[in-house]
Specification:
Layout lengths: L6 E10 L2 E5 L5 E5 L12 E8 L5 E4 L10 E9 L3 E5 L6 E4 L12 E8 L6 E4 L19 E9 L3 E6 L3 E6 L12 E9 L5 E4 L3 H18 L3 E2 L7 H8 L3 H13 L3 E4 L2 E4 L7
Parallel strand pairs: 13-15
Antiparallel strand pairs: 1-2, 1-4, 2-3, 4-5, 6-7, 6-9, 7-8, 9-10, 11-12, 11-14, 12-13, 14-15, 16-18, 17-18
Helix pairs in contact: 1-3
């Protein structure tokens, strides 16, 4: 795989007044300019760098970290627009281009957009595209397992909830019942695989497994403590009422009270649930 657009640890092979040259394999010797040299390097010293192309389209190294690498999605601001397309600030001295053909709609200066970074097949430059769907995989979701921790980028809203990009490779959905905090477009979050459905689609959550169950149970305990140990809700209650009162789905509520019932913390009656022993935490 090409080192262009990626991080690498490379050895020093030549030392000059204006910087040091690193052995980048097939790319040959790549310059790390002096302004990025934080110490007096010696031959064979290993340096962690990012490789990209300079204004002359030659490989160059930097110790600065971009906002994304090739093969990743990122939420980037448009800094300029010209006859070739729009330019985005991705954290390095040279902005990255989004050609007109790769814009899902005209990109405006000062606005930020979710884009994908890739190597253009023709000129081999690092390029961005806001046509993100074509870079996401539809197959291969079975590799994800329930409660697996994943990296998420918040994308857009639907009638069911919020779509997010999972590990820079797949679409996933966070259902409304699993959203408890305000989310913003382009935000990076850590999440969990809640379920890979039979049709291959991914459901997500922000809490995994026992953590989620414990939190939901704590919500029930807190409500009971504030209401003299009783709540007029049970497994037959209206899902909309459960969601409005507790902020969780009815399924999550049933699991929470079921766990508390098994642990002897509450009893379930026809008219509601009753706390057996008042407690602040589970």
């Amino acid at each position: 795989m090409s080192l262009i657009g990626q991080y690498a640890t490379l050895p020093v092979v030549n030392i000059m007044d204006f910087g040091v040259y690193l052995d980048a394999g097939e790319l040959g010797e790549v310059l790390l300019p002096k302004k990025y040299c934080k110490e007096d390097y010696q031959i064979d010293d290993q340096i962690d760098v990012f490789i990209y192309l300079d204004s002359d389209d030659l490989p160059i190294a930097t110790t600065h970290k971009p906002k994304a690498t090739v093969g990743q999605f990122a939420y980037l601001e448009v800094t300029d627009a010209g006859r070739f397309g729009a330019f985005l600030d991705w954290g390095l001295a040279k902005d990255v281009l989004v050609p007109f053909a790769e814009q899902h709609k005209p990109l405006e200066v000062g606005q930020s957009y979710l884009v994908y970074l890739y190597i253009d097949d023709i000129d081999h430059r690092i390029t961005a595209s806001s046509k993100i769907d074509k870079f996401l995989e539809e197959d291969g979701t079975k590799k994800f397992k329930a409660n697996q921790k994943v990296d998420l980028i918040i994308a857009n809203t639907t009638d069911l909830g919020i779509k997010a990009i999972v590990n820079h490779s797949h679409w996933g959905l966070i259902h409304k019942s699993d959203i408890f905090d305000r989310l913003s477009f382009g935000q990076s979050k850590t999440g969990f695989i809640k379920q890979v459905r039979p049709d291959g689609k991914i459901n997500l959550s922000f809490d995994g497994g026992q953590v989620s169950r414990d939190r939901n149970a704590q919500l029930v305990i807190n409500f009971l403590n504030k209401n003299n140990g009783f709540a007029p809700f049970h497994d037959k209650s209206d899902p909309k009422v459960i969601s409005r009162v507790f902020g969780i789905s009815k399924a999550a509520f049933k699991k929470a009270i079921g766990g508390l019932y098994k642990s002897g913390d509450l009893k379930i009656e026809k008219n509601g649930i009753t706390l057996i022993n008042k407690k602040s935490e589970i």
